[in-house]
Amino acid sequence: MQKNFTVAIDGPSGAGKSTIARRLAAHFGGVYVDTGALYRAAAVYIKNSGVSPENEGEISRIFSESPPEIDLRQGPDGQNVFLNGSDVTREIRLPEISTLTSKIAQSPAVRAFLLDAQRQSATSAPFAVLDGRDIGTVVLPGATVKIFLTASAEARAERRTAELLAQGVSVRYEDILSDNIARDTRDAVRTTAAPGAYIVDTSALSFDESFDKILSEVLRVREKA
Ligand code: DC
């Protein structure tokens, strides 16, 4: 295998990127880099700093004057996220942080700061899988394999509704669908397939079917490498 085999998985929120990416990394004994978690930790940093997500000047200032230290560490129960030494693994999943993250992810200062962090983590292991909105297009245009994982807004909302109902959270499909559509609109410019990406639409596929398609593509490229 060539040195640093990198798999970039792009696609809209809720298409199943992280589950596929995690399983792919485990299959090859590699690392999974949850780039969304880095953005979420940056949002917590901005919130703790008391800076408005709309104030680009202030965001840019705090990121250059006192840049946060964000680490992804492998723990016994999966990946833990640390912000300036504090464990923020749980906090980054709060709904208010999801909303804030989608706003601060539009900040050029935040994106520039996280670009280096993401590129460094891609070289941290011989086999790395990164998922996000712009991994194959911007972060790793030279990734060994580029995947674009997508699904209709309706299919994504159905899965998310079932997932939350199974966890005992009472939600309405219509609300999840309209949230998805709003988030897709905000994320739209970053949610495009990279040139040469292998496109998988999972709307009508089971998880195993989606995974098998992607695994075949990775194995095909690996054999040629
Ligand atoms: O995948 P996620 O839901 O954890 O991502 C959280 C937010 O971060 C989402 O609004 C999109 C943004 N994001 C991004 O813009 N670029 C990435 N590479 C990863 C996440």
Task: Walk me through the structure.
This protein is α/β, with parallel strands linked by helices. It has a single domain, classed as Rossmann fold, CATH 3.40.50.300. It contains 9 helices and 8 strands. The strands form 2 sheets. A 5-stranded parallel β-sheet has the order 2-6-1-7-8, sandwiched between helices. It starts with a strand and ends with a helix. Bound molecules: 2'-deoxycytidine-5'-monophosphate. 2'-deoxycytidine-5'-monophosphate is lined by residues 13, 35-36, 39-40, 101-102, 105, 132-135, 187, 190.
Spatial strand order of the main sheet: 2-6-1-7-8
CATH class: Alpha Beta
Largest sheet: 5 strands, parallel
Order of helices and strands: EHEHHEEEHHEHEHHEH
- What hetero molecules are in the model? 2'-deoxycytidine-5'-monophosphate
Count of folded domains: 1
Radius of gyration computed on alpha carbons: 17 Å
Number of helices: 9
CATH H-level superfamily: P-loop containing nucleotide triphosphate hydrolases
The count of DSSP E runs of length 2 or more, i.e. the number of strands, is: 8
DSSP helix fraction: 40-55%
CATH topology name: Rossmann fold
Approximate strand percentage: 15-25%
Structural class: alpha/beta
Mean pLDDT: 92
Instruction: Name the CATH architecture.
Output: 3-Layer(aba) Sandwich
Q: Could you tell me how far the N terminus lies from the C terminus, measured between alpha carbons in angstroms?
A: 6 Å
Low-pLDDT runs: none
Using the alpha-carbon principal axes, give the shape.
Answer: globular
